[in-house]
Amino acid sequence: MAPAAVIPRPKLAVEYWLLTYRRNWKGSLLTSFLSPILFLAAMGLGLGSLVDAEVGSGRNLGGLDYLDFLAPGLLAGNAMMLAVNESTYPVLGGFKWYRTYMAMAASPLRGRDILLGHFTYMAFRVTLASFVFLGVMAAFGAVSSPLAVLAPICAALCGMAFATPTAAFVATRINADNFSTYTRFVIMPMFLFSGIFYPVSQLPIVLEQIAWLTPVWHGVRLCRALSTGSGVSWELAGHLAYLVALILVGTLLASRTFTRRLYE
Amino acid sequence: MSLIAAWGLTKRFGDFTAVDGINFEVERGEVFGFLGPNGAGKSSTMRMIGCVSDPTGGALRILGMDPSREGTKIRSRLGVVPQQDNLDEELSVAENLYVYGRYFDLPRAVLRSRISELLEFVQLSERADDHVEPLSGGMKRRLTIARALISEPEALLLDEPTTGLDPQARHVVWERLWTLKRQGVTQVLTTHYMDEAEQLCDRLVVMDRGKIVAEGSPRQLIERYSTREVVEVRTHGQVTVMADALRRLGESPEAQARDELYERVEELPDRVLLYTDHGERLVALLGEVEHESVLVRRSTLEDVFLHLTGRSLVD
Q1: Closest partner residue to B86 among A12, A99, A264, by Cβ?
Q2: Are B134 and B273 in a shared domain?
Q3: CA distance A164 to chain B (A)
Q4: Domain for residue B58, yes or no?
Q5: B201 in the same domain as B128
Q6: What is the 3-class SS of B53-65, one letter each residue?
Q7: Do the domain assignments include residue B174?
Q8: C-beta atoms of A106 and B71 within 8 A
Q9: Which residues in chain B touch residue A21, judged by CB atoms under 8 angstroms apart?
Q10: Which residues of B touch A95 (CB under 8 A)?
Q11: Is the pTM of this model over 0.80?
Q12: Interface size between A and B, measured as CB pairs under 8 A
């Protein structure tokens, strides 16, 4: 008479997130469109025309127009921003405000199913937004290599390299007090100093070396090489390995902090 | 074999012992209650039974299994109604049931029919496609109960099922839980409401500061820990003065000549309670003591509870 024991899978947790996504996909997709349009128009075209005229196209940008240089960088930076958003408030909400994780924990789902379910959904969101971003880039004429179709995947990896350790940290927080400090003083500087808007070689050597350590710099290098087709080399495998390693470490850390929070 | 059995079950958080070596057994088909003030360890015990918190000591068996090793299997056969609603307010009523059923890997077709049955059962059929957010507290509670039943669990765990509800909403919830009881669904609940415990529980334990201080059916507990009746004597004047007068009355030769008049005297701000088996006889003697009004009532679980756990707050 006992029902057969169910096999818990992260997939069952993903279904929840997809159901909530179905409620607001229109707004979320619209944002995914508008954000690159605004950035590429203002900075790529507006600022870019000035840069190209004054600096002379290509001298410091590896032979690229400013728009072509900037767009793939923004692709990676945008993925980072979105991933950080998805891994801060929604994660704390899962424990505290909406208690979604707690509801899941009472079911056969295990801590790691809950965690991997949410991470999978975050990756889906960031990948989708990155493909939309690529579409807008193409419409602006900022894509010059067929390899560019791989760039959104790399952008998503870059995003998840942020989302996983961020979620691990958020799971230890009682409230959202430090979140704006984190985005303002950790994430924003990375957005500004990691080679999205200008090559990091323009920075003092200390800052340049710090930039090399940030996941977003690796993401930017990957996206830029794939979208422009220049600089495709074994170096990219190194960037990829760095991002994947961060995702693994972040997931392991999150697995610890989630388990502690869920089953204390 | 019992559905749930605990021996010396203990839960410590650092230096604080929330559950201090308790023993209990829950049989299949019964409604078993944990009654106690806030902070007595009821919710910690429930979390251990729900396999979302590992015991720090003692042994726990649920459906014959060890929760620390087979938590997933056990949870697939339990239904949980948490103290704090955790419905998804952005999803519809029916979607909440659907997505929760999916956590148990129940097929869509099965869920479709169960959702309509359960919404009927908790009287929310008309609200199936509405968002959860605007529902009343009572409706949300009923929906949470329906959600816990989606997997046809062998036992339902309810942590303070009616806390925060208005009287009408509470009665609707009780009535639904009664129906489930008649259907033979095992229920384990915590409460600090005496009427709830008295109405629903076949058997209950009273918890205080992490320990079980009494166990039995509501009737047994009243017989064991209280008197048959309670005489409440009110006064406009000084309660202490009246209480002393009542004590002298009990010690008078006339009273001593018969059976003991009362077992205990308790002073409250506006009245004195006399715990007695001879309410009417006691009232007949009250003419000698100045008082405002008098009321004879049957002992309730509340008298037992306050006797066992005290009237003072232990925050």
Answers
A1: A99
A2: no
A3: 23
A4: yes
A5: yes
A6: CCCCEEEEEECCE
A7: yes
A8: no
A9: none
A10: none
A11: yes
A12: 83
- Residues B96, B56, single domain; the answer is yes
CATH number at residue B289: 3.30.70
Interchain proximity A12–B13, CB inside 8 Å: no
Q: How far, rounded to the nearest angstrom, does the alpha carbon of residue B145 sit from its chain's CA centroid?
A: 16
> CB A19 to CB B151 under 8 A?
no
**Contact criterion met (CB < 8 Å) for B73 and A16:** no
Strand, coil or helix: A40: helix
A110 Cβ partners below 8 Å, 6+ apart?
A: A8, B71, B72
Same-domain check for residues B253 and B139: no
- B53 plus B81 within the same structural domain: yes
Q: Which amino acid is at B76?
A: S
For residue A264, give the chain B residue with the closest CA: B53
Q: How many CA atoms lie within 13 A of A123 on its CB side?
A: 17
Contact A15 B80 (CB under 8 A): no
Q: How far apart are CA B170 and CA A30, in angstroms?
A: 45
Q: What is the pLDDT of residues A244-261, one digit of tens each?
A: 999 999 999 999 999 999
Boundaries of domain holding B128: 4-217
Which residues of chain B lie closer than 8 angstroms to A23, CB-CB? 90-91
The answer to whether A23 and A42 are in contact (CB under 8 A) is: no
User: What's the ipTM?
Assistant: 0.89
Interchain pair B100, A107: CB under 8 A = yes
Cβ–Cβ under 8 Å, residues B303 and B226: yes
Contact A12 B102 (CB under 8 A): yes
CA angle (A24, A30, A35) in 5-degree steps: 130
Which residue of chain B comes nearest to A20, CA vs CA?
A: B91
Residue B90 lies in a domain: yes
pLDDT by residue for chain B (315 residues), tens only, comes to 799 999 999 999 999 999 999 999 999 999 999 998 888 999 999 999 999 999 999 999 999 999 999 999 999 999 999 998 899 998 999 999 999 999 999 999 999 999 999 999 999 999 999 999 999 999 999 999 999 999 999 999 999 999 889 999 999 999 999 999 999 999 999 998 888 998 899 999 999 999 999 999 999 999 898 888 999 999 888 888 888 888 887 777 766 655 677 888 888 888 889 898 888 888 888 877 888 889 999 988 888 888 888 766 554
b/e burial code for range B229-249 (CB count within 10 A of at least 16 → b): bbbbbebeeebeebbebbeeb
**Gap from B212 CA to chain A (nearest CA, Å):** 23
Which residues lie across from B233 on neighbouring strands?
B272, B294
Please tell me which of the candidates A7, A20, A262 has its beta carbon nearest to residue B52: A262
C-alpha A203 chain-centroid distance: 24
Q: Which residues of B touch A264 (CB under 8 A)?
A: 13, 53
Q: Nearest chain A residue to B156 by CA: give it.
A: A106
Q: What token pair was written down for A134?
A: 């690529």
Q: Which of B76, B91, B154 sits opposite A108 (nearest CB)?
A: B76
B92 DSSP assignment: B
Domains in chain B: how many in total?
2
